[in-house]
Structures are given as structure tokens and as C-alpha cells.
Amino acid sequence: MDLDSSNAGPQKITAPPVVDSQHGSVRPLTTEDLENVAALFLTKFRHRRHHRDRAIARTAQYMRELYLDGGESKALVQINPQGRLGGFMGVLKARYELNGTALNAAIIGPFMTDSNTDHGWAGPQLLRTLHQGEYDLYLTDSANRTSLAFARPMKYQLLPVHCLEWTCVFRPGAMAAAMLHRKWPGLPRLALDPCARAFDALAGRRSELPAQHSSSHRVHREPIDAAQFAERLPMLMSDYALRPSWKDGELPRLLALAAEKRADGPLHFGGICDDAGKMLGCYAFYGQAGGVANLLQIQGSGSHWGATLDALIAAAREMGCVGIVGQTQSRLMPQLFSHQRVFFRYAGGTMVRSRIAEVAEAVRSGDIFIGGLMGDRWTRLSSDDFGRV
Fold first, then answer.
1. What is the pTM of this model?
2. Where is this region: Disordered (predicted)?
3. CB distance 353 to 151 below 8 Å
4. pLDDT tens across 150-162, in order?
5. Quick check: 76 and 65 in contact, CB under 8 A?
6. SS3 call for 342
7. How many CA atoms, within 13 angstroms, populate the side-chain half-sphere of residue 255?
8. What is the C-alpha separation between 271 and 39, in angstroms, rounded?
9. pLDDT tens-digit readout, 132-151
């Protein structure tokens, strides 16, 4: 499509058609698919063996709420010629704007195929069917290397910086123990915690305080709630050319869904203000004492990214978290480099596809708000164990 400067609203998105071929068909997800899709998800991403029936039921219920309760399903399933589930692609509808022009976006979440029933056709079929929809851009922030192999030939642009995860360590021993316990919940804490405390005592009890970044204004940190965060975040991201367009209470509803995630503790909000009370930055993170905090979203204005990051780290430390992890983004990298005990690793591919030249150029130049709430890592599918009580 050609991009103009009008402010017309997005066109209605019709469901992708049912696509048939000799290798199977692709159609929108239905209620009848949920149990099989949930079972495939747990096999591919959780490797769960215990309490499997309960986990399938809970995963299916969450998928129903995530993909079906909003009306017409955007998620897709591939059915092989024998009538069995061959693959699944989770899709959430979103709205963006580029310099005032409304755009329809598809956020791609879990993308999986069943190796027992699929012979290499399900993945390409799902992507091709998705691309037949009336979306202006397609994005994901959690693609694994298999998904990258499917998507790159289909002209998805990779955002290398956003593919990384940063980790700031407060107490090395306690953080290692927390990560081991999360991976193997059966490990006894009585064996891990004393060793962690002893290591941290030898290492100097606590890591160095975070660097304090200079700012042209005196700033102070203050806690805020979800409603205040939803009010202020859009104002702070207004300098991105390609940014979300949340309307009619959409952002508060999204934050309420994000707050259901359980793996890393409750969702907390905070911000920094100048002496006049003007909000200069805000953040949202999951955290609890003794655990690893997980950043959902951080946004600063102008030269205040560093002070916003300092406030985030201070809030997590004061809560008793042993460290914090978060997705990297271009405007945050200089501030991350100035902190001690910050490490980076590859966490998942962030990619965008669009046939609109102006959108592709904004992506290439990094002038896009992506990740966090404009991705799928905020969903329970990204981390939660559906088999636990």
C-alpha cells in the first residue's frame, strides 16, 4: 500500500482465508483446537511430564482468553492432510502509527510445528497465510533460531540490538541460586541459600552502587500505579516515528493482562520526575524479594534515560531482588554500558516485516518502539509453569 499523511483509522482486518494445498490447510484457531495446541506448546516449550493433564487444561484456558475472547481469532493452525494439527502460530492484533498515519500490526508469538505430523510444510504455510492478511507490518520479539530461519527469506528485518538481554547482578551467589532453583524447582533451598550467602559475603556482600547519571534537571524517583503508567508512557514515546497507537482504554487492559504473569513476582511501576512534577521517565518490572527482577518496559525522555535506569535498578535492589534482567533497546545501550556487573546474551530474535517503504526505513534507522508491551514476552506463555498449583 502507499503511505499518505492522512489520519484515517485502520481498515478492518479480515481473517486470513482458509488456505488448502496437497500438504494441508491453514485456518484461524478455534476452541476445538485449544487442547491439541496446548499439548504441543507444552511439549515444545516446557518439556513437562508431571501434572500434564492439569497443565494442558490451564494452558488451553489461557490461550482461549489470549487469542479467542477478543472476538475474531488472528491466531492460526495448520492441519495436515490426515486432519491432525501440524503447527500453530500465535498472533495478536495491534495498532501502530507512522508520523500520524494509522497502521495495522500483527504481533507474532509462539510459532511451532509438530515434528510427528509435519514434514516441513507447516511453518512456511503458516507464515504465507499470515502475510495474506491485511496487516501493514508484522513483528516479533521472541523468535528462536528455527523461526529466524523461516522468516529471514521472507524479508523480515532483524533488529540486532533488541535481540539481546541485559542482566545486572546485585548479589552473584544469591542470583545464581535463584536461577538454579527456577530451572530445577526441586532443588532444596536449604542447600543453595547458605552457599549463596557465603559467596556473597566473600565477594563483598553487595555489588557496587549503580552509576549516577548526570541530568540537566534535578530528578527524584516516585512509585506510580498502572493507571499513571498508562497515562504517561504514550507521552514519553512520542518522539518515535513508528510507535504504538493505543486507544479506548487499550493500554490499561494490556497492563492488566501483563500483571497476570506469575513467574517473576508481581508487576511494579515507577518513574522519575523533576522538581515541577513533570514525568521524565517511567518503568515497569516484575519482582519480589530474593528473586530476579524482570523488566517489562522502560522509557525515558531526551537525556533522562540514564536517570530512569538508575531509578529502576534502585527500586529492584530496595525490594530485595538479587539482580535484574531486561530486553535491550538502542536508546538504552549507552546507559547500560556505564553500569558495572552488566552482562549481555542473545535472548530471542526481534524482527519486523512491512511492504511499506517508509515503515521499513523507520525500522532500519531504529526509529521504532518495539519490545515489552509491543511483543509477546509479557504473556504468561513466555515463562509461566501452568502445571503448578
1. 0.86
2. 1-25
3. yes
4. 787 889 999 999 9
5. no
6. strand
7. 20
8. 40
9. 988 999 999 988 888 888 78
Q: What is the pLDDT of residue 216?
A: 47
Contact 215, 272 (CB under 8 A): no
- E strands, the chain, where? 19-21, 24-28, 76-79, 85-98, 101-113, 137-143, 157-158, 164-169, 219-223, 242-244, 267-274, 279-286, 292-300, 323-327, 342-346, 349-353
Per DSSP (E only), the strands in 318-361 are 323-327, 342-346, 349-353
* CA dist., res. 115 & res. 123, Å (int): 11
Q: Which residues contact 281 (CB under 8 A, 6 or more apart)?
A: 236, 271, 272, 298, 299, 300, 301, 304, 305, 307, 308, 311
Which residues are registered as beta bridge partners of 169?
Answer: 323
Confidence check: pLDDT of 191 > 70: no
The pLDDT assigned to 175 comes to 73
pLDDT at residue 172, rounded to an integer: 82
| Listed residue (4, 238, 206) closest to 102, CA to CA | 4
Q: Which amino acid is at 374?
A: M
Helix/strand/coil percent split, the chain, to 5: 35, 25, 40
Q: Would you say 124 and 107 are in contact if contact means Cβ atoms under 8 Å apart?
A: no
Domains of the chain, CATH where assigned = 19-135 (3.40.630.30), 164-170+207-349 (3.40.630.30)
What is the structure's pLDDT at 48? 61
Can you tell me whether residue 199 is helix, strand or coil? helix
Q: Could you report the per-residue pLDDT of 287-339, keeping only the tens digit for each? A: 999 999 999 999 999 899 999 999 999 999 999 999 999 999 999 999 999 88
Q: For residues 133 and 175, give the distance between their C-alpha atoms in angstroms, rounded to a whole number.
A: 44
Q: Cell 497465510 maps to which residue?
A: 129
What cell does 185 get? Answer: 524447582
Cell of 14: 479480515
Q: Under a CB-based contact definition with an 8 Å cutoff, are residues 19 and 132 in contact?
A: yes
Residues in a beta bridge with 222: 271
Mean pLDDT of the chain: 86
Q: Does 2 or 340 have the greater pLDDT score? A: 340
Q: Tell me: the pLDDT tens digits for 231-250?
A: 999 999 999 999 999 998 99
Rounded-to-integer distance, Cα 197 and Cα 149, Å: 43
Q: Tell me how far apart the alpha carbons of residues 346 and 147 are, in angstroms, rounded to a whole number.
A: 15
CA distance 316 to 298: 13
